[in-house]
Amino acid sequence: MRNIVILISGSGSNMAAIVRAAEQGRWAQCLNAQVAAVLSNRSDAQGLDFAKDHGIPTQVLDHKAFASREDFDAALMAEIDGHAPALVVLAGFMRILTPGFVAHFAGRLLNVHPSLLPAFPGLNTHQRAIDAGCRFAGATVHQVTAELDHGSILAQAVVPVMPDDIADTLAARVLTQEHLIYPQAVAQFLTQSPMRSKRG
Ligand code: GAR
User: Fold this and answer.
1) Burial tier of 192 (Cβ tally within 10 Å: 0-12, 13-18, 19+)
2) Do 120 and 59 reside in the same domain of the chain?
3) What is the Å distance from ligand 1's center to 112 Cα?
4) 54 carries an active-site annotation
5) What is the CATH number of the domain that holds 91?
6) Could you read off the pLDDT of 69-93 as tens digits, one per residue?
């Protein structure tokens, strides 16, 4: 079985969309894949309860308990490696990852970002899109590389920016699209990669 490890920091709605897609699409039978664990850097991440309710092991690794970014990433890497993942999915994981972490999971590390990359990498994407007068905004699923919010694009979705939008209303419209394209991109990634698990 190929293991998927999902990393969250907050509400975890993208993680929930992927878990639901795995259940409804019978990924275990059809793709030889399962969501093996949900990890969070915050103990108050609401998504942890959803994962537990769906029988998925969870683990919290508080970044504040580590002296440096490198120490945290090393511990996180070890925790993830314990699941021998075929795929690591960042789903609202609000941490900048060290180059060593990214290199370790290169080719099996995906992220969803709430903009039409390469526009608006980084934070506050919705306000920046509104301020720039964009008529369209959206979301991008991409491979993670050492450069923040770069890496090859696997999927995108476009939404209109309405004249009365504020960041929150635009974010909500974009998020509904993330819930569609992220599970699809994960399933497509699994379909296109070898069926073997990391343990062989
Ligand atoms: C999503 O909009 C995701 O694109 C964004 O955080 C939100 C998490 O929502 N990620 C980033 O901004 C990463 N830089 P969720 O926790 O409900 O999935």
Assistant:
1) exposed
2) no
3) 7
4) no
5) 3.40.50.170
6) 999 999 999 999 999 999 999 999 9
If asked whether residues 121 and 167 sit together in one domain, one would say yes
What pTM was computed for the model?
Answer: 0.96
pLDDT in tens, 123-166: 999 999 999 999 999 999 999 998 989 999 999 999 999 999 99
Same domain, 173 and 190: yes
Q: Which residue stretches of the chain are H helix? A: 13-24, 27-30, 47-53, 69-81, 99-104, 125-131, 167-192
Co-location of 51 and 3 in the same domain: yes
For ligand 1, atom 1, name the residue with the nearest CA: 92
Looking at the fold, whether 94 and 123 belong to one and the same domain comes out as no
Domain count of the chain? Answer: 2
- Peptide bond preceding 118 in cis form (omega within 30 of 0): yes
Structural domain range at position 67: 1-105
Q: What is the mean pLDDT of residues 57-64?
A: 97
Tell me which residues have their CB closer than 6 angstroms to ligand 1.
Answer: 8, 10-14, 91-92, 112-114, 175, 178
Q: Exposed, middle or buried by CB within 10 Å (0-12, 13-18, 19+), for 40?
A: buried
Residues 6+ apart with CB under 8 A from 56: 19, 35, 36, 37, 38
